[in-house]
Amino acid sequence: MPGAGTRTATTTSNPPARLLDLTRLISRVGRGALTGVDRVELAYLRHLSAEPVPLFLLVKTPLGYLLLPDGSGPDVLSRIDEGRPWGALDPLGRVRRRGSLEYRQALAYLRRNAVARCRRTGLARMLRQHVPAGTSVFNVGHSNLDDTTLGALREIEGAKISVLLHDAIPLDFPQYVAKGQPEVFLDKLSAVARYADRVIYSAESTQKDLARHLRHRLPAVIAPLGVEPLIPEALPADLTPDRPYYVILGTIEARKNHDLLLDVWEAMGPSPETPALYVLGRRGWRNDDVLQRLDAMKAAGYPLIERSALEDGPLATLLKGSRGLLFPSFAEGFGLPPLEAAALSVPVLASNIPVMSETLPEFPVYLSPDDPYSWRQVIEAWSVARPTLRLPDNLPDWEGHFRIVLSKAKGA
Q1: Which residues does the UniProt record annotate as the domain Glycosyl transferase family (predicted)?
Q2: Is residue 394 part of a domain?
């Protein structure tokens, strides 16, 4: 497997090795565009793979755990980032047909290149055998926050475990998540409290939200997530706009509040003067009424264009040409789409929720997520004349995030 190549150090007090849990990102292979949390795990893979510190990758699969050795990061990254093929199925992949072909090929690749593998009960022993004492562990995808995985990682002598918690939405807004998820998430927080050495938060408001639910107070670091520059590329022919338009970006789920925008578009009517709305994101959960309404309005001729998956290049082009990004969400852990829009100088109309005013204080126009009348007024005004808004002085970037995360505690 290729080595890591030239790497640039972030801190002079490096640990003997790092280990990144890559379970979430691998589970997304073959399932379309990455979500916000997926992108965070990908950013960690990119950055830690380029550091001079040895990096191990841990992946939980349906059959157990796989441990990939130092030097694996760049090769795995090229297959996720650049679309390099994962290679042929192995005998196990041909027998077990659960998941997409690409996902099964990814698992076969991981099995071929793993330095070790084990069933659930052998994880602690495998880690002690292959991972150096004092290793710094990162879990940033909300996967494997349980006694089995974190408890085994804790048995690595001198290990330092950092967990990035993205939000408290399952506990503070249970009406927006799948049944049973609040209980599962509370169990995850309990495991974090038992085994983690520190928690990483992307915003102060997120730390305050989660502090109400963590049983023990853990050392914390606040490191805003980075905004990746989106490079515009040509649009598919079926997405070429024929009128002024807006974009809403994100999974179609209840907390994203697509319902408010459907109210606005219904009030404006299906006329040629009505601006278009590009609804970009896969269909989520507990949102059947909104999905049925969206389908009915599209069939009735409203200018609503839905696309479940769109590559970053065409997405950047759509955003850049729009009258604005609409972000009427009821709850967010960080809210990356408004920051990505701001980086492209695209106006943002957003909900007045605490995390938005923290991460992007003066750039958006803020409105209540319960006031479709005011949203319609602004949307109609921007359709006539796109506003010129003062760009934020400093958008967060990944270099800044990792400068905080890898230097705040010795040995990270």
Answers
A1: 241-360
A2: no
